[in-house]
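User: I'm curious whether this sequence folds into something compact or stays loose and floppy. Could you predict its structure so I can see for myself?
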Amino acid sequence: MRRKWFMVIAALLAIVLIAVAGCAKPAPPAPTGPVKIGFIGPLTGPISADGLLMADNAELAARIANEKGGILGGRQVEILRYDNKCMPEDTVAMARKAIEVDKVKALTGFWETANVEAVRPIGREYKIPVCPGTGGGIDTMEDWYPGWFHHGDLIVMDMKPIMVRMETDPKLETIALVWEDMEFTRDGSDILHRRWDVSGSPIEIVGEIWHPIGQGKLKLEYTKAMGFNPDAIFMSEWSPPAIIGAIMALHEIGYEGVVFTGTPLARGFILQQVGEAAEGIMVGATLIEDPSVPENVAYCARHREEISEDIYFCGMCQFEATEILILGMDKAGTDSDAEKIDEAVRTLDYTFLSGDKMELTPEGRVVRHRTYLAQVQGGKIVMLEYTILELEDYAYYLR
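Assistant: Here's the prediction. I'll summarize afterward.
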């Protein structure tokens, strides 16, 4: 009798287990389509030369990954382009379209601090990784969330070599500053005043002039700068129209003193347009061609073959930012879990085009230690020396 009841119960239990198994939902299939990354940048307007070069470099990083078999089990990486016209409100609109309509899994690009700040809350809201290719500033480091990386340049990277040269050259005691007005350069002004507006400083800032972004006619501004009779002028111009206008203005006025500027002068097409007017200008540069770094040499060769001879820090930084996202997703084994991707990025064995090994602060700030001082000689950018960025140079941005 007991045996009979045991068999009945066993049979009923088997039926229940079969029924439960039949009702269980099958595991969803693994994604097989492309991994979409949204590039948002100034594809039209006065900054479009930078934006288009950045977009091309994002696609170069994706192309290299795809040639190696893709990521996440063979999926191809696809870059979708969006034009923000260098306007924060357009950055927000394009970010929402990219995520909600086109289903991108990460965002990069941007240009200028205000655009980076505009996109951060969108990344937090949708919990997707964001890695700016350019656009550094104090506020971009606030309100961190897992998956928020900041690779974009900081103005201190361009200014540190200039500050060191000014402070070590006994012939240079005074400087006039001319700034293309944006949050990025406001940070630069603050840094210089903190450093030199102190008792015992070897450098005196004798004048400071601001003008709107994208302005190309700058003779009046640089005439005023010369009027301060400085030992050197620092032209902090970042859009192609402004850097070209500034150089031509100084040439027309006949200024023969020392001139410093930032990375934008390293652009080949700008050097061609300004010709001999740029001769002798010293350039503080985040990234330039560096034959001592194998990764840099390989990148430059590929860039010349597939994009252009115009090798410029905006493109180089954007290439690195896109690679960081791609490699992070692949190592994490996911394109949809920002926390896992954040953990993976922090342990990447990645070498920048500067030769530095990648390092991140807890807030996701990419730390690059090597920056450059170069000079225009014979119509070309010639590297003069390296300058090492210390962690205290970044402290201003992490306060």
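Summary: The chain has two domains: 35-153+291-368, 156-285+372-398. The domain at 156-285+372-398 is CATH 3.40.50.2300 (Rossmann fold).
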